[in-house]
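Priority: medium. Attachment 1 of 2:
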């Protein structure tokens, strides 16, 4: 269920639960840590003005925030296992900042590496890399489906990501 502006405004930001909420220009997240709570707004800087995001974010959180603008580009390796090196975690796949697919892929990668380690030479590496690339495709498809089935397409940002989710060549 999409949250209303009132539900977001009255959200308990002191909670110790991670949250990610649908906003007009992207996603707003809250990640509680031991000594502070990390909050942020994921948006497309090519479509939305940073000052608008800062204002909306401050209005919703209810306090002045020191902003750090983080830029990221989705990326992945084609050969997670090459010779005697295996890329794990963010060194192998970085496709989204919020839903923790890197943690999922890292834990699965360790299990599958153990399965293929010791297989005769390049066969083990080739099989592992094929498995890894399939996993990346599945995660990318899952992320695309979030945007594709999102009913919030009333502004430029959501129209853009909805249209982009219909493409099959996204990496």
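Attachment 2 of 2:
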């Amino acid at each position: 269920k999409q949250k209303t502006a009132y539900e977001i405004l009255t959200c308990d930001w002191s909670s110790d639960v991670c949250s990610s909420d649908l906003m007009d220009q992207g996603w707003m997240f809250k990640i509680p840590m031991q000594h502070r709570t990390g909050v942020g707004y994921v948006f497309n800087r090519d479509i939305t003005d940073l000052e608008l995001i800062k204002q909306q974010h401050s209005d919703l959180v209810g306090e002045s925030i020191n902003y750090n603008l983080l830029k990221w580009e989705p990326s992945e390796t084609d050969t997670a296992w090459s010779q005697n090196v295996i890329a794990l975690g963010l060194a192998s796949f970085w496709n989204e900042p919020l839903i923790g697919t890197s943690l999922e892929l890292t834990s699965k990668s360790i299990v599958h590496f153990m399965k293929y380690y010791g297989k005769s030479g390049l066969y083990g590496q080739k099989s592992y890399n094929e498995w890894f690339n399939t996993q990346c495709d599945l995660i990318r498809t899952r992320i695309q489906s979030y945007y594709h089935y999102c009913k919030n397409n009333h502004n430029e940002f959501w129209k853009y990501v909805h249209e982009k989710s219909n493409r099959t060549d996204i990496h």
